[in-house]
Amino acid sequence: MYNEIISHIKNRKTEIIEEWIDRVKEAADERMISVVSEQVFQGTSYEFVDLILLNLDENNSEYKSKLEMFSEKIVRLGWPITFVVSGLRTFTHVVHDDLIQEKKISKDREGEYLEFLDNWLAPLSNEIIHTYASTWEKTVSLQKIALQELSAPLIPVVEHISIMPLVGTIDTERAKLIMENLLEGVVSHRAEVVLIDITGVPVVDTMVAHHVIQAAEAVHLVGARCMLVGIRPEIAQTIVNLGIDLNKFITTSTLRKGMEKALEMTNRKIVELEEVN
Amino acid sequence: MRIPILKLKDCLLVSIQWELDDQTALQFQEDLLKKIHETNARGVVIDITSIDFIDSFIAKVLGDVINMSRLMGAKVVITGIQPAVAITLVELGIRLDDVMTALDLEKGLEKLQQELGD
Question: Does A184 contact chain B (CB < 8 Å)?
Answer without folding.
Answer: yes
